[in-house]
Amino acid sequence: MDIIRIDNLEVYAYHGVYDEEKEKGQYFYVNAELYTNTRKAGMNDDLDASTNYGTVCDFIHDFMTKHTYDLIETVAEQLAQALLLEFKLVKSVLLEIRKPHAPIEKEFESVSVEIERGWHEAFVAFGSNLGDKEKFIDEAIEALSNLPQINIVAISDKIVTEPYGNVEQDVFLNGVMKIETLLPADELLQILQKVEEHAGRERKIHWGPRTLDLDIIFYDDDIISEDDLIVPHPDMKNRDFVLKPLMQIAPYKLHPVYRKTISDMYAELMAKKQ
Fold this sequence. Notes:
Blueprint: E1 2-13, H1 19-24, E2 26-36, H2 39-44, H3 53-66, H4 72-86, E3 92-99, E4 111-118, E5 120-128, H5 133-145, E6 150-155, E7 159-161, E8 172-181, H6 185-198, E9 213-219, E10 224-225, E11 230-231, H7 240-249, H8 262-273
Antiparallel strand pairs: 1-2, 2-3, 3-4, 5-8, 5-9, 6-8, 7-8, 10-11
Helix pairs in contact: 3-4, 7-8
Family: In the N-terminal section; belongs to the DHNA family. Belongs to the DHNA family.
Keywords: ATP-binding, Folate biosynthesis, Kinase, Lyase, Nucleotide-binding, Transferase
Catalytic activity: 6-hydroxymethyl-7,8-dihydropterin + ATP = (7,8-dihydropterin-6-yl)methyl diphosphate + AMP + H(+); 7,8-dihydroneopterin = 6-hydroxymethyl-7,8-dihydropterin + glycolaldehyde
């Protein structure tokens, strides 16, 4: 990935915990590395194919002067998100906010916060087998698409599948969507659970009926093992209602644990069922 770098952009702004900092202000210095692809711009000498660093500098200055925060951690977090939402060619950003005049009664050069944020690729499986199944799914997709931190890239067909497990219940409507998101995996999970709750999801019976089910199948190529989140989804290799719609939108996606493509995993599952 190519880098557009901005060093020591000076901004006079009003961030700080103390009232004096908010009233009098002080100088801040911003270092930014914008990770993007400059190939097309470089080959065609076309500014429209690149990210204009002058416009980025103006954006950073305006953002930091129009907003006031107590913490430079908050300045960095909010500015990074704003940059990624505004400049569509930028995939990630390394951002440092320096504060050389922080109210510290010791000799020092500056204090700073440095963070790296960017867009992540995730695959989310959806399903429903209670009530108006298609309505629950469509409303969930719309709710996610309305969040600025989520871009829906592709959605599979909705397929009718038999229930998984030993609980007697109605057939499911299932599918998978590919998204880009600024949210870390744990925050994405929280958003998905809120959407499920809005649809009236109740967790009473394991593998039981539900108005809406949203599961993170992949998050980048990360391997996550937490109490409330395991990614890639641990049972996806046995679930044709996950693999079949994934085949539509990402047949060559490589499973980071099994090192097999979705196409290969689906073929193996179908062979087992014969």
